[in-house]
Amino acid sequence: MPTAVASLLNNLTNYLMQMLYTLPVLLIAFPIHECSHGLVAYALGDDTAKRQGRITLNPLKHLDPFGTIMLVIAHFGWAKPVPVNPNNFKNRKAGMALVAFAGPISNLIMGFLSLVLFKVFFSSLSGNISTVQYVILDFIRYSVIINVGLFIFNLIPIPPLDGSRIIALFLPGKAEDFYYRYGSILQVALIMLIFFGAFTGPLMQMENNVIVKFMNILQMSNLT
Question: pTM higher than 0.90, yes or no?
Answer without folding.
Answer: no
